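Researcher: We're reviewing a set of sequences before deciding which ones to prioritize for further study. For each one, I'd like a predicted 3D structure that I can look through quickly. This is Peptidase M12B domain-containing protein. If possible, include the structure in token form so it fits the rest of the review sheet.
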Amino acid sequence: APKGPSCARARPPLLPPLLPPLLLLLCLRTWCAPLGEFTFPDQRQGSLQDFQVVYPSRVDGSLRFLSHDLLYHEPLHQRDRWQVPADASLHYVFEHDGRQLHLNVTLNSGLLSAGYVLERQQGKTHRQGSRNTCHHTGDILEGAAVRGAVAVSTCNSLTGVLSFSHGEHYFIEPVRGVVRTEGSPQPHVVYKRDPIQRLASACISDAPGHAQSVERQRERWQRRHGPRRRIAQRSTSTERWVETLVVVDPKMVQYHGRDNIENYIFSIINMVSGLYHDASIGNPINIVLVRLIILEEDQEGLKIVHHADKTLASFCKWQKSLNSREEESNATRHDIAVLVTRKDLCVGMNRPCETLGLSHVSGMCQPHRSCNINEDTGLPLAFTVAHEMGHSLCYDQWPERGIGTSSGLS
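Model: Here's the predicted structure for Peptidase M12B domain-containing protein, in token form for your review sheet.
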């Protein structure tokens, strides 16, 4: 993909027909910058190397234009539900790589458990009964042909992952810092998932050889700490539900904001859920969020440091105690615990490096080992969480077009 939008790929807004030619030229230049000239107000987006800027529209099932307003929440009040049924499709279109892509999505009704609980540990507050109103999964269409799968959140324009059938993954998110006038298209950036990004930290050298060395070191750690016997593979395809606890540390709250962190985690888990619905995985796996714990201050008994091994050991012990306390009530018991942190993790040493996650191999059925830690890197975090869950589930090899690459597990 080129390093910026081209006029053939970024659709400008509709303009009055009698604009003077010079003004028309200026308007088109505003909405369709030449290659390499798009300027991002946001520093992180400005560092992207392989991207396109697109202008999605909301359309109906026949692809007739409805609105440039992309935000959609399922109505919360019963009296409003007739407007858009929960199982109804939403449709979005935009041009990418010279093709018109059509996202046909429905609400991910299985994202949250019926007894989902949010806990904020500072004030000991609990909230139960939240519903997913704006996180969707579905298909990528080009004409009548299905080109892949999509997991996207419509709470803040379009934010999610596009997984194409030929094996490439792209992220989509709104361009940050752009002042949008009412009725005008909202620019979004579509950028390719970098395989090295899964291993490398943004602040350290991301040379492929160095990143692969870190991954090999990570796998050696997992083999040393893993079980001695391989779990037998099942020949039948059985649908599974993985009830998931997510814990975010105080640095996450500081970075994303107290009011935004829950929705951010919903978006990430929605993408993880979409990745686990890839047909290449085999067994259908449903990722269900049963509990989200937001740590607003450091917790006694939980040590989150650069040293990934020590952080994982501490978190696994801490999360097991949570499940032990919930033995009398199954509402918030979890199958796996996921820690998300802004701390720069590193396997084997207490300093920052390229490690993005760590987990125990085939630990899912062992309460003290069914846990993983993950470094937040934005939307690519979804692949880190999915990859670490894969180790816990004892997948020997992820398909290249699915969640990751061969891990050499044993």
